[in-house]
Structures are given as C-alpha cells and as structure tokens.
Amino acid sequence: MPNSPAHAYSDTLASFKTASGAAGQLFSLPRLARRFPNVARLPVSLRIVLESVLRNCDGQKVTPEHVAQLAGWQPTAPRVDEIPFVVARVVLQDFTGVPLLADLAAMRNVAASLGKNPKTIEPLVPVDLVVDHSVMIDHYGTKDALDLNMKLEFSRNRERYEFMKWGMQAFDTFGVVPPGFGIVHQVNLEYLARGVHRGKDGVYYPDSLVGTDSHTTMINGVGVVGWGVGGIEAEAGMLGQPVYFLTPDVVGFELTGRLREGVTATDLVLTVTEILRKYKVVGKFVEFFGEGTESLSVPDRATIANMAPEYGATMGFFPVDGKTVDYFRGTGRTAAEIEAFEAYWRAQGLFGVPRTGDIDYSAVVSLDLGTVSPSLAGPKRPQDRIEITHLSAKFTELFSKPVAENGFNQPAPKLAQTFKADNGIDVKNGDVLIAAITSCTNTSNPGVLLAAGLLAKKAVEAGLSVKPHIKTSLAPGSRIVTEYLQKAGLLPYLEKLGFNLAAYGCTTCIGNAGDLAPEFNKVIQEHDLVCAAVLSGNRNFEARIHPNLKANFLASPPLVVAYAIAGNVTRDLMTEPVGVGKQGRPVYLGDIWPSSDEIYQLMKYALDPDAFRDNYAQVAKKPGKLWDQIKGVTGQVYTWPASTYIAQPPFFESFTMTPPPLKAGVQRARIMALFGDSITTDHISPAGSFKETTPAGKYLVAHGVQKADFNSYGARRGNHDVMMRGTFANVRVKNLMLPARPDGSRVEGGFTLKDGEQTTIFDAAMAYIAEGTPSIIFAGEEYGTGSSRDWAAKGTQLLGIKAVVARSFERIHRSNLIGMGVLPLQFKPGVSWESLGLTGDETIDIALADDIRPQGDATMTITRPDGSTRAVTLTLRIDTAIEVAYYRHGGILPFVLRQLLAA
C-alpha cells in the first residue's frame, strides 16, 4: 500500500478539503519540497510525473532513489536517469487496439499451454478502446452519407468487431466506445478524462495515461500528463510495467499577446509546429506558460497539444487553471468531480498558468500571438508552413523544383495545361479534388468549426458553390459538434456546399478518404498530374491522404471550405476572388470570412453539460443497432477462427520461460534498403488502401478476398500475413539502392535489389530468411517520424531485419524497434551511409559489447564486394537499462510475459 508506514516518503501523505468540505488524501509535493527545495521550481509537467513516482514508490520497481533523482532535476544536466512512470489508465484506438488485443489473446494461449491460469494476463489499469479509425468516406455530399458509410464500415469490419466483443467479456478492465461516437482524442477530452482519480486506499492522484496513437498528447490541453506509445509499450504498461523513459529536458514555450482578428487556432498550431520542429524538441517535454497561454481557450490549447508529434515533442503540456475547470463543467462532469479536481491542484500548489521566472526550464522559446498569420502547411509535411498569401507562388515554385528540394519535378509550362477526364471534366495541376473537415486536431475546436459554418453561410448567401466533383466531407470528432452546428443554424449551409455529415472518425487524415472517381485516377496517372487535397488534419505525408494526390495541405476548417469553393491551390485567395457569386459579382475571402464577434455569439451552443451527459450515456445504454448485432465468441482463451482480419500473432512461437542466449549484434547481414531523411511510419507501414498487384493484395486474392473487400492496411493490422507484406510498401517510399533513372527521378514503392535484380522488399526478405541471412536498413535524419505505428516495428522484425542504422530517430519508433528486439543504431555526427559510400551490395557486421550499456558504442564493419573492409563506430540507441533487458529477452512482450507467468 503506498500510504503504509513502510512507504519511504510516508511523511508526504497529507489531507485536503474541497470547497464543500469533503476530505481527501494526497501525496503532497509541497511536503516533498521540504526535503527537496528544488521541487518548487520544477516544471509543472515534471512535478506531475514526480507525484506518480512518489506515490508508487514500493522499493522494487520504483525506489526512493528514483524519487530523489527526479526531485533533484536540473534544467541542463546530462540525461542518464530513467523514470519509472506508472500511469492511471491506457487509451487505444482500433487500428492499434486490435493488434494489441491479439497480443494479449496470444499471451493467454501461452499461459494456457504452460498450465497457467489464463487470467494471469489481465490489464491492471483501466483500458478504453475507441473505435474511430475504421470508417471511410465512400459516400459524401448527400443526406444519407453517414448512414451508408457506417453500414459499409460494419460490413467490412465485422470480424474485427466480433474480436473486440470477445475482449470485452474476457478482460475485466477492457472497455470499448463503439463506432459512431467520435475520435478517440476528443472522446478522451470530453468523456474519459476524469481530472483526478481516487484509489481504493482513499488517496487522490492526477489523471495520467499513455495511448496507442501519437496524438494522445491532445489530453495535455487539460493538464493531463500523457503521450503516445506503441501498442507493445502500452501492453507492458497495462500489465503492470511502469512506462520507462529518460529524464527529459523541458522546454518552456512562452506565449505573449493575443491572436489578431481572422487568425485561427489552426494558424497558431502550424506556427508553433514550424518553430519547434526547427528547434529540435524530439524526446523533450514542451510546457506552455505566460499571459498569452492564459488567454487561450481549452480547445485552442488542445489543438496545440494535439500536434506535439508534428513538432516532435513527447508532450505539449498546458497547466490546469480556471479555464480547465470551466471546460470540465461545460462538458458534463459532476459537481463532486469538479470540486475534487480544483481542490487537488490547489493543494499541490499547481493551479494556474506559470508566468515568466516562476519555473526553471531547460530552454525558453517565445512567440507573440499577435504575429501569427493565416497559414496552411504542406504539400508533404506538417512542419512546412506557408502563409496563405504565399501559397499560390509556393505551389508554382515547388511544381518545377527537384524532388530532393521537396518539389514535384514537373516542367513549368505544364502547370497551365488542362486535361480532360473521361467523364468530361477538365482537370489541371493544383486542382483540389478532396476537401475534408476531418481529424482530431481541429474537430475538437468549436471556434474553427463554427467559423467554417459561418463562412459556408456567407458563401451560400453570396451565391457561391463547390463543384460537385470535389470530394467534400464533414467528419467531426464528436456527435456534440453536429448538435451545436445544428443549434447555431449552420449545418444546412455546410450541406449546401457538399460538406454533409459523412462520419464520426478519423477518415481522411488517417488515409480513409475513400477513392476518387476512376476517371480522375486515370487522368492523374496518365499525365502525372499534381492534384491537391485540403484538409483540417495533422498529417499530410506522401500517399497518406490518397495515393494519387501528391499535394496535400493542412488548413483550418474555414480555409478548407474556402479552397473547396476556389477549386485550385494556385488561386491566390488574398488577391483573387474565391469565386463568382450572384449577378456575376466576384466574391473575395474577406467578404465571407467571419469575425471573432460572430463566432463568439455562437459559442454558447458548444458547451452544454446536459448535451455531453446525454450523449455519452449512450455508450453503454444505446450504442446503436449495428453494434448490438455484433456477437463475439465467449471464453477466457481465444480460439482463433479462420480469418484474413484476425490471426494468432507469431511473436510467441517457441516461447520459453528462460530467454534464449543473446546473439549480441548482427553477423553477415545484407542491406535491404538505403533511405534518405524523414522516412515516416507511413512509409514503413502504410495505413491506407492497396492494390491487387502488391504482395498484400496477392495474398488476399489467393485467400478468396475480392478487391472491393480489401479494406485498408490499418484495418488488417490484426493479421500479420497481410501486414508483413505491407511493410515498406508505401507507393511513395524511395529505396536509394535502386539506381536513378536517366531524368534523375527514382523508383517509388517497396522495392529493393537482391543479387542485382529488382524485387519487392517482401520477396527479398523471405528469400534472405530462407537462406538464414539477416538484413539491415540504413536511413537519414528523423527515421520513424509520424504515427505511433506498432507495425512499422513489428513488420520490420518479421521481415528478418535485425538492425536499423540512422542519423537520428523519432522517439516512439525507436522505442518500438527495441520493443520488437530490433537494434536501433545511430551514426556519429557528420557520418552517414552516403559519406561511407554505401551502395547496397556490401555485407555488414555489427558487434556489441557483452555487457550492453545504454547509449554505448557499437562497431560496424563494412565488407565490400572486393573484400575490402572498413570499421565504423556507432551509438547504440538502447537508451536505458530497462531497454537493455527488453533487448536481451527478444523484446518487451516476452519480457513482460515471463514476469507475469513467473509470478
């Protein structure tokens, strides 16, 4: 018991009272500061982590030394200590949640085969899975689009949902929010987050979590410490293992001033993303402070927190203050919960947004909100911000620039040409073919959604319209959004422009935009056109939105509507009309852009406590007829019926209670790929659709699945046979082993060279495995950017790739590689595979010391075809002692399973 006399810091247990006189207990940080005065100047986010370490100090997994180390944090000290962080709960989305559930089911199979109680495998903290990634925009622009899309969703995903139903009855602490309620991060903000929890021992503690989606950080907007991890790390956390991470730097981000008229929270977050990505905050906490921060609404804070993966930080944290309390009240939390929430933070001395000088940060970045301008980001990365004034010129410039400079390598005269599709519609480069109000980032924010509705109203009244061939969709993060758009009288105007309600889910942002008309696909491919999508999302990586749309721009919801009306991104909306209205009158963006006063007048519809309570009461009571019709098998051990969606994962084959002897390093490996910078987890493990001609498509066809029923890679993540074939199968990924074409362009797609012949990476991997030959990947900066995608690491492991050597790694993917027993290694500064002259025909040996040390050195020996060799020193990116243990056990899952079964 944490409050027993044996607790090393039992003197920090204190009482507090709520405003109505209710009493509670907490582990007091002010009392801890009597021993460690430094605590009073720690960043707020670190103090919340410190509270968890203090409360869970059991002398075994969490020791008094851990408390002392974190309490003594210094802003610029070397980062060598690891923190064992015990989280209050775990949140899953369904693309990552299904494979996680499959792993848990497979663990129960192992337990049963060893004569153990299968219930040994049971989450020890609450786990909520929100089904939000499975719906696609097949139907759009009609009143029945939502109903039709949901029926298709249930038809395609029945086997997955039956598996979830089994999980709900098999695991005591596993709950599901069914399809059609919203996006996981908005559901988390509005419903799952409780602010503070009360343990069985009567001790209150802050809400905290990890989630299997990189945008879990959205919850940082309400003062909750949490971030995205891979499902393999989340499994360990839910099964009693602390989440271990290196003590971080904490960058303070000071906001001053106020946003100008016409500037949205989306414009602000794109600016913050650009600043912090340049500042290099990977692996760091970012904590917002200052009077500008205080002025931001909670939805605006959540929008900024949501984009932490895009700026590379572990978190983008906002402290609790009066606006947080108001948000909890407005979203239907009980009076008792709100009282305990506010009283707890006041008792800990952590209520309110810090001002300059209150806290010691590792570094401070500043931004005057008054300098932020309306912006978009793209066409290939979320950190590439473009002020709306410059978008037309920037697209024109990139159209002819080389691919190496983020361009499209097209001849300049082609930009003005028009091509006719078979359906008679003229198509040009820069044409907007998808315009989507989508994603967790912006559909949680009533300010920008009401702005989109107001802009639509003004546009319709001015006589503007959207061409019917543009795929328009409205996919809010919550049912509440539809309710307040209806109450404000704005939904009919969005519908008149084609933005009919199409789904409650991730949709376009995750790659579930659905297909374009075949005629458009044909004309784009025949003429190599650079057409565009404009979406209110957070991700626009290559081929993520649609395989045939090369230019993808992130924008605020009102700008999505504006560009849908304009129809082409080469139109300069600051100087040219958005369109032609009644009586042939040109209508400019300024004519239809809503004022902040107009938006404010409608905000009263957005926070109605009764509406939130009524909506989320239906999760358990009235989840819907389609969900009620799903029937899962019962029992504590899953029986794995034949399915191309769900298959018993192979990660526990030949499992033994004692780990096999470690083969430290890699011997006689062949190179599978040579990649450049910014290889994303979308490049490694795409989430969207795929063709019959791909290895995954051929596999499904061979198993009797029609192309119309392929669904997506994301939906197939419960089947390793599909997913390993989809690894490195992104249609835009470029393996630089393959020689350049005469025009300098590169082969795109999941290909490699084996014995001098071009083949798919999957086929080469299977051949290497059959030969008993390990393989290796080389890459540049920021390897593994993007989503917390387990399968980017799982697929890598199943292809027999033993190590990845890169110039730098993104946080989650590096951790996932270790979690799957794959070595992450980093070049020393100034060294790259290019500087070493690698071409792909070399043989690679990597030697590790017998006593593997975190962040120690490893020796790579390159043997060229002529027999010459070269030795290179690399940095081992196994960063902590616990990660050494994971690697020795072959990954985090075998490590945790051995612990559970031994107990």
UniProtKB/TrEMBL annotation:
Keyword Signal carried by entry: no
Cofactor(s) needed by this chain: [4Fe-4S] cluster
Family matches, as InterPro entries: AcnA_IRP_Swivel (IPR044137), Acnase/IPM_dHydase_lsu_aba_1/3 (IPR015931), Acoase/IPM_deHydtase_lsu_aba (IPR001030), Aconitase/3IPM_dehydase_swvl (IPR015928), Aconitase/IRP2 (IPR006249), Aconitase_4Fe-4S_BS (IPR018136), Aconitase_4Fe-4S_dom (IPR036008), AconitaseA/IPMdHydase_ssu_swvl (IPR000573)
Chain ranges of the Aconitase/3-isopropylmalate dehydratase large subunit alpha/beta/alpha domain: 81-567
Catalytic reactions on record: citrate = D-threo-isocitrate
Domain Aconitase A/isopropylmalate dehydratase small subunit swivel: 698-829
Keyword vocabulary terms for this entry: 4Fe-4S, Iron, Iron-sulfur, Lyase, Metal-binding
Pathway per the UniProt entry: Carbohydrate metabolism; tricarboxylic acid cycle; isocitrate from oxaloacetate: step 2/2
Documented EC number(s): 4.2.1.3
PROSITE patterns the UniProt entry points to: ACONITASE_1, ACONITASE_2
Enzyme type, top EC level: lyase
GO molecular function, one term: aconitate hydratase activity
PANTHER family attached to this UniProt entry: ACONITASE/IRON-RESPONSIVE ELEMENT FAMILY MEMBER
Function of the molecule: Catalyzes the isomerization of citrate to isocitrate via cis-aconitate.
Family according to the record: Belongs to the aconitase/IPM isomerase family.
NCBIfam families tied to this protein: aconitase_1, PRK09277.1, PRK12881.1
Name of the protein in question: Aconitate hydratase
Organism: Pelomonas cellulosilytica
Species lineage: Bacteria, Pseudomonadati, Pseudomonadota, Betaproteobacteria, Burkholderiales
